[in-house]
Specification:
Length: 98
């Protein structure tokens, strides 16, 4: 399941920044991510901030907003798939009843 890999990748990146205490601009670090796609995604959302000199720091507020957006998206997908599964089950039951 690649979805679980994305969460693991995000956690690994965040843990690297927290371990290096790079949570403020004056503590920014140079970082070479193993998962460049997730790193770019965090950067584009603003959870990882580039200082312009190839050094990055973690913005905890934006990271919280990013996690909330991911949760909302996952909930919407789960709800949609639940509605679709219910509709398919209803159609199947009505087709069998005829």
């Amino acid at each position: 399941m690649w979805v679980f890999g994305l969460g693991r990748s995000r956690r690994r990146i965040v843990n690297d920044f927290v371990a290096a205490q790079a949570t403020m601009a004056d503590r920014a670090i140079a970082y070479d991510a193993a998962d460049a796609r997730m790193f770019r995604r965090l950067c584009s959302y603003g959870a990882i901030v580039d200082d312009g000199a190839g050094r990055y720091h973690l913005d905890a507020d934006r990271l919280g907003a990013f996690r909330g957006a991911v949760r909302r998206r996952a909930a919407a997908i789960a709800a949609t798939s639940g509605v679709v599964a219910s509709a398919v089950a209803a159609v199947t039951v009505f087709a069998l009843a005829e």
